[in-house]
Amino acid sequence: EPEVTQTPSHQVTQMGQEVILRCVPISNHLYFYWYRQILGQKVEFLVSFYNNEISEKSEIFDDQFSVERPDGSNFTLKIRSTKLEDSAMYFCASRGDALSYNEQFFGPGTRLTVL
Amino acid sequence: SQQGEEDPQALSIQEGENATMNCSYKTSINNLQWYRQNSGRGLVHLILIRSNEREKHSGRLRVTLDTSKKSSSLLITASRAADTASYFCATVETGANNLFFGTGTRLTVIP
Question: Which segments of chain B have a pLDDT < 50?
Answer without folding.
Answer: 1
